[in-house]
């Protein structure tokens, strides 16, 4: 795609911003959004920032019927100097293109999309909340819009970015959660769409999540769809275990989403010289490690929570209590360092931070 | 839900109808559509028939992100007396509620939905094309519309029905197709959403379909996601084989969609005293049956094509040529009888036909 400039159509009146202490996740959206259209002859075109508004879409649009869609999730943080900054945004744009490939959606220009995201965040910078642990959630997504009921890749798409100020994930400090190992439902399987960030994976996960929530669990631990033996992910996070001093996480196998946080955790552990490995982990191995007192920590990783310690894993009738329901030292150190880097309070030796320039300095 | 009456808001000017011989599938829609809303306190409410029009939906609506949606597909046919009639519509409404259950979508009142479909078809009856093999495709679907980015069942939905006049599937007579057995990609797996009619299953299937189409195949034959040995479906149809005089189809196992046509084929075969069984069928068994000359016929079944004979199955490097690339007698008899019943030209001993009353007689 040619690097066309982004037209900006500012809103006429700004919405009221929610109070920092009343922020939830994903319920309130900022004043503007980014849109770009795709059509077969033109490619991606008509990039524009417009007031946040409903989409007008034909009821036969493919996204409503055949789920051809992908999305991403990242955040903008305010650093101590009051500047907006992003955490490894290029990783999200690389991933959306991997998802696009799996879903037969035409790729986007990653650099151009990053430029668009930065310009949008700059325009709505006042929406980035200031209170501890709060941030501006960024949701880029692509939907198929061709008005056609045939099961085939769409010829028309919209790439959209919306922004939502979100509250601190841990309002009352980090509390390890209870997780149920899921034996019946499957999130994804090799040959399916598990490694893509596409709607169907999440639609498929709702039922299991709803059932365990009724029994007091925060999330499910997903096992592989083939043998239902090997650990894949926890809820919509990647998962790590510290066993015998080594941190392990399931190896990417086609059905696991490659998390940006997962990758950052691995990089940090290596930097700290803490042994870390990616390999297949069975529930039975985990149970045994627990029984022998070798399971030291367990935690999920993802953009929303950063690190989410697991205090208990229930597998059939067995409860594995981990680290006495307390946050372990590795989980704590990872959480503090990652959030420290994200909020610009800790040195960033990896070049993970990408600053957003102020609106006045943005060339369009 | 209480049986509220359906408000009707007629369009002010009718669109031009396509010529019967220029009809495609799912590209042109009729003058009206049915909509009903769901919200947590009210349940399903505000049922209405309105002019066909774009939907106005918040960009954060869950359907765009987490794929929480279901759909159905059935047809209205003109019988020789010029009356509109449906084929086993209650089966589609039962299935949409099974899909709803899997996707955590609140159930609809099946009788009320059938009444709505009949009223909509009656209003747009002039859109049912008359030429041989043509029909009016009916697409009921439900989308999640809550403006919220959390991964959780939506609190708001729309149930919508749109109509599209469609051309004859076999314009130049039935021609058996070439099918490639898919060894890499998986449509669905036990514990996933395969038995539900939800967008994600179709999004997931696009890639495999695109790849085999490039090699000259009409569709893929899906194998089970666990062992990649057992036959599941063909494209978006169920599949049947005639082996040694017996017709077999894969047994429903959680990852196969329970087709209305599949069920009708089984019923018809029983009625004709042709042996039929539902069981697990491996590709290896099929290859062997073919090698020993016992594989007599193969065909897909679905609403769009009714019966779609398979002339060749390619599995790795082996081409199984079936019935010399010709339509077999059982496939032919099923096609003639099913379409005969659907168009009211053949007696319907099963009570499968449901007539649509004329607009003037419709009480709202
Ligand atoms: C299924 C799934 N796994 C893992 C993750 C973690 O990925 P990341 O660290 O990039 O947020 C996410 C979400 O963000 C997810 O949806
Ligand atoms: C995946 C899949 N399998 C089978 C079928 C056949 O079902 P039916 O006979 O009800 O049309 C369909 C579609 O209609 C389908 O989408």
TrEMBL record, chains A, B:
CDD domains: BCAT_beta_family. Pathway: Amino-acid biosynthesis; L-leucine biosynthesis; L-leucine from 3-methyl-2-oxobutanoate: step 4/4; Amino-acid biosynthesis; L-valine biosynthesis; L-valine from pyruvate: step 4/4; Amino-acid biosynthesis; L-isoleucine biosynthesis; L-isoleucine from 2-oxobutanoate: step 4/4. Its cofactor is pyridoxal 5'-phosphate. The keyword Amino-acid biosynthesis applies. Its EC number is 2.6.1.42. The keyword Transferase applies. Transmembrane segments: none annotated. It catalyses: L-isoleucine + 2-oxoglutarate = (S)-3-methyl-2-oxopentanoate + L-glutamate; L-leucine + 2-oxoglutarate = 4-methyl-2-oxopentanoate + L-glutamate; L-valine + 2-oxoglutarate = 3-methyl-2-oxobutanoate + L-glutamate. GO terms for molecular function: branched-chain-amino-acid transaminase activity. Signal peptide: none annotated. It is an enzyme of class 2 (transferase). It comes from the Bacteria. Keywords: Amino-acid biosynthesis, Aminotransferase, Branched-chain amino acid biosynthesis, Pyridoxal phosphate, Transferase. It holds the Pfam family Aminotran_4. Belongs to the class-IV pyridoxal-phosphate-dependent aminotransferase family. This is Branched-chain-amino-acid aminotransferase. It comes from Virgibacillus kekensis. The lineage of its organism: Bacteria, Bacillati, Bacillota, Bacilli, Bacillales.
